[in-house]
Amino acid sequence: MSYLRYDSKHFLLFLSEQKVENYHPDTTMSESDGDSKTVTAYSYEGTEIDGSTKIEAESASYREFVNGLVRTKYSQSDVEAILCNHGDGNREHETEYQVFQEWREQAKQMARELLDRDIS
Fold first, then answer.
1. Of 80, 76, 54, 69, residue with least CA distance to 113
2. Which of 23, 43, 104, 111 could join 65 via S-S bond, C-beta 3.0 to 4.6 A?
């Protein structure tokens, strides 16, 4: 996993990295001597065309990355509704809260891994 600043308010996160051994690059779009060497490549499962995930974040910090990742699935209004409904005795609301908490924990783990791996 890695990340890249996109602009002053966004980062691209490269999550769910999969190593692709013996990849044959498409040489039809570039000048090539016809040599079809295989390379090791990496793929990602984000929503952007390159497989990255664009998040709102102004700095490469744990707090900003966690918040940006949470916002990829939950708006501020969604979070407020989930928190306000939590504990009202409605099982559906409790399930919604648990799913939100699980995503939050995943976001924290991804942010830790991204920042721990930073080699800049």
1. 69
2. 111
